[in-house]
Design a protein that fits this description.
Layout: H1 6-54, H2 60-80, H3 83-91, H4 97-115, E1 119-121, H5 136-160, H6 166-182, H7 189-222, H8 227-253, H9 263-289, H10 296-339, E2 345-347, H11 350-367, H12 369-378, H13 384-404, H14 410-439, H15 447-452, H16 458-490
Helix pairs in contact: 1-2, 1-11, 2-5, 2-10, 2-11, 3-4, 3-10, 3-12, 3-13, 4-10, 4-11, 5-6, 5-10, 5-16, 6-10, 6-16, 7-8, 7-13, 7-14, 8-9, 8-10, 8-13, 10-11, 10-13, 13-14
Length: about 500
């Protein structure tokens, strides 16, 4: 018997399906709109905060606009730069995306507010000479152009999926505005040559150190007969090394608000902390490893917690060290409008640091997942052991660079360490393949298949390297153009 309501149910199903498709499409379209809306509200709130704390006086409007630019810059730092600290842990499945965003937001903000620099070289460590500016107003327009250009460049880099350096972006912005305002003579080309050298030194050093740690873990822990016994011996040593390195890093870079720490003192602090954590982790790892099977899956679980802790410490150190540099131009504008003078170093008001801290948290939550996925899983495949090597290499590289006096980028170091791990995996896999072929020639692969099995995505490698190379000149040209427009409009 034919169901008289059959056609009605089919029609209803089709209608419901169309409604469901419309709802899914609306959610997909509204997702970026939500991020845009929240960002716009935060920028407006930053302007209101500036109005309240700066007070309604001469120059208030300029400070409000600069605070909006600073908030926009902070959002883009969260979307691009901060993602690199959490990407290895997420790529290794030691943290969920939500957990990584929460930890990074808390520790970045804590680093900025608790250990952020009280005094910052707002002219980006001597990139330009403020005294060469013709007057105070020109200096203010130059700082605003630097802020806006760096933020726009970071926004573009995030959109194309390229992790770039916040510090290099702001350096390029300051340089470009300075050249547009006072000519090429205003730039300290010695400092710029050091920054250019760091484009090569940072990622290479980070990559080499990460590869060396991975080689050590493979030789001493993974490719041994009793993996659990090896982990009980060597993992506490690695945890102690991690704790010592990060304590030295934080002492050197994050405590300048309280006391100035020399490199030697920081290393002694790191040595003491490292020994303490080694002693504490020996019984902890022994308890954790009881009853575990002798396989790599067990090793991954043992490395999981140290990896999460290292990612949190990286975020704290980044907040303490980099956020002040990012809001430096805003602090310089506030200082100039308040006192009627400009200087190479100024104090950062607390409300400026609050804008920077909350801005990076919002930027990470709204726009960070794209870069986290790219760095954590699309360059090369990471597991907890490889990701731990990346985090440890990042901290050690910063310590070495500080000792050598080199201006390095935490972004370049972290991403370079990911590449270093990937290229070492390729080298190790090729070495094993050759030994197998030597024993069994019939198992050799054609060149096309070997290329297909590369463990580092070459397209991402070229995109990232190209973005690193053009960051300073691109931000500089953009800043020069913005300064010229601002100067023409105001005058």
């Amino acid at each position: 018997m034919r169901d008289p309501h059959g056609n009605q149910w089919k029609t209803l199903d089709r209608d419901l399906d169309r409604i469901g498709q419309l709802e899914r499409a609306a959610q997909y379209v509204s997702r970026p709109m939500v991020g845009f809306g929240v960002s716009l509200v935060f920028i407006v709130v930053a302007g209101l905060i500036a109005a309240v704390f700066f007070g309604f006086q001469s120059g208030t409007f300029v400070v409000i606009v600069a605070a909006g630019f600073g908030a926009y810059m902070a959002l883009n730092i969260g979307a691009n730069d901060v993602a690199n600290n959490m990407a290895p842990a997420v790529g290794a499945n030691a943290l969920t995306m939500g957990g990584a965003i929460l930890i990074a937001a808390v520790f970045e903000s804590a680093g900025a507010l608790l250990a952020g620099g009280d005094v910052v070289a707002t002219i980006s460590k001597g990139i330009i000479d403020p005294a060469a500016m013709s007057d105070l107003r020109v200096f203010i327009w130059a700082m605003m152009a630097a802020l806006l250009s760096a933020a726009l460049w970071l926004n573009l880099a995030t959109w194309v999926g390229a992790p770039v350096s916040t510090t290099h972006s702001i350096v390029g912005g300051v340089m470009g505005a300075g050249i547009a305002a006072a000519g090429f003579g205003v730039v300290d080309w010695g400092s710029m040559s050091m920054i250019a050298a760091s484009w090569v030194i940072s990622p290479v050093l980070g990559g080499v150190i990460a590869a060396l740690f991975l080689a050590f873990i493979k030789a001493r822990v993974i490719y041994v007969e009793d993996k659990i016994a090896a982990a009980r011996l060597w993992l506490p040593v690695l945890i102690g090394t991690m704790a010592g390195t990060f304590s030295a890093y934080l002492a050197l870079k994050g405590l300048n608000k309280i006391v100035t720490v020399q490199v030697t003192t920081a290393l002694l602090i790191g040595l003491g902390t490292g020994l303490a954590f080694w002693a504490l982790s020996v019984p902890f790892i022994r308890r954790q490893s009881e009853g575990m099977e002798n396989r790599n899956r067990s090793l991954k679980s043992l490395f999981g917690l140290p990896l999460v802790v290292s990612a949190a410490l990286l975020s704290f150190a980044h907040g303490a060290n980099d956020v002040a540099n990012a809001v430096g131009p805003l602090a310089a504008i506030v200082h100039a409008e308040n006192l009627g003078e400009f200087a190479g170093e100024v104090s950062i008001p607390t409300w400026v640091m609050v804008i920077g801290a909350f801005g990076i948290s919002f930027g990470l939550m709204l726009f960070g997942p794209k870069l986290i996925r790219m760095v954590g899983s699309q360059i090369t495949r990471l597991n907890p052991m490889r990701a731990f090597c990346v985090a440890l290499a990042a901290a050690i590289t910063v310590i070495v660079a500080s000792w050598l006096g080199l201006p390095v980028s935490s972004t370049h170091i972290a991403v370079g360490a990911v590449f270093g791990v990937g290229f070492y995996r390729e080298y190790h896999a090729e070495k094993r393949r050759r030994s197998i072929i030597k024993a069994t020639p019939m198992l050799s692969l054609p060149p096309e298949e070997r290329r297909r099995r590369k463990l580092v995505r070459r397209s991402h490698f070229m995109t990232v390297v190209a973005a690193w190379i053009i960051t300073v000149p691109a931000a500089a040209m953009l800043s020069g153009l913005i300064f010229t427009i601002l100067n023409a409009v105001v005058n």
